Amino acid sequence: MLEVPQPSREMTPTGYDFRGSTVFVSGGTSGINFGIADAYAKAGARVAVMSRNAERVETAAAKLRRHGNEALGFVGDVRDMEAVRRSLAGTHEEFGEIDVLVSGAAGNFLAPALDISSNGFRAVIDIDLVGTFHVLRAGFDFLRRPGASLINISAPQSTFPSPMQVHVCAAKAGLDQVMRVLALEWGPYHVRVNSIVPGPIADTGGLAKLVSDTERSRIEGRIPLRRVGTIDDIAEMALFLGSERASYITGALIPVDGGISLLGGRNYAGEPEQTPQEMP
Ligand code: NAP
To answer: Is the model's pLDDT at 78 over the cut of 60?
Structure first.
């Protein structure tokens, strides 16, 4: 029987104690992913983030250090397995075994399938799906085993077919299956793998791309809890999944969405901008 280390129960202001833990967040320099990185830094963890834009990486790492712990930033594209491996190896070298690994990098744009080129489709599959495989697979070699928690950031499009989102629907559905298979294969190492499915989240690049201000109030009227989510709503779930309080949870797809998934597949973007005359 493998011994799973039990972290101390002493708390930080977040209600969690991740002091002595190492956290890596891919795409962790803005929006939801940065919010997760920041929550872990606040909870005492040493956090590393990775994304493509050097300035964004530098700014994110500096903000994380304000919580008083070491933080690292790596410039890299999740589509490049070697760059991913280098970032993870660098984190491992500086901070030791990785306790929590978050895969959050994603790309998105609104377009009907008829207007999406092979390259456009492939770019989203490469970032969201192949990129996540790179992060989790390369990450495995640097994880605390037993005990690590892996968290994918999925999206409602993984379950609900959404017009103008064929590329994202395909990529995120694949990502959910990667999560489930790895939960099966890596469970015996006491490595947990789960996905968070955020609903529409305020103050993020993702929501800004998909929804106008008018659209936003229409969406809020449909969400059972009558508000869009916050970055903190998602960070809270990520802290829980990374903690020993979630030690029996693996292979789960967890919506944090004010209940909007109960209503099925209506997309944030509404209906495609095609009139019946234009339809084939
Ligand atoms: P965001 O603010 O647009 O941030 C995306 C991050 O990913 C950025 O830090 C970006 O930095 C990085 N990134 C993009 N492509 C990358 C690549 N190829 N390699 C490495 N890093 C890359 O995103 P968000 O809206 O907060 O969304 C975060 C996650 O939540 C995504 O997985 C998204 O699908 C999911 N989600 C969001 C919402 C929402 O309402 N926003 C709803 C459901 C699901 P660089 O540009 O520097 O690379």
So the answer is: yes
| Contact between 20 and 5 (Cβ < 8 Å) | no
215 versus 232: the higher-pLDDT residue is 232
Residue 12 confidence (pLDDT): 81
Alpha helix (H) ranges present in the chain?
Answer: 31-42, 54-65, 81-95, 118-124, 131-140, 166-186, 205-210, 213-222, 231-242
pLDDT, position 212: 85
Section 204-230 average pLDDT: 91
Distance in Å, CA 278 to ligand 1 centroid: 33
pTM attached to this predicted model: 0.94
Whether 205 lines ligand 1, by a CB cut-off of 6 Å, is: yes
Instruction: Return the CATH architecture of domain 22-261.
Output: 3-Layer(aba) Sandwich (3.40)
Q: Ligand 1 centre from 153 Cα, in Å?
A: 9
Domain ranges of the chain: 22-261
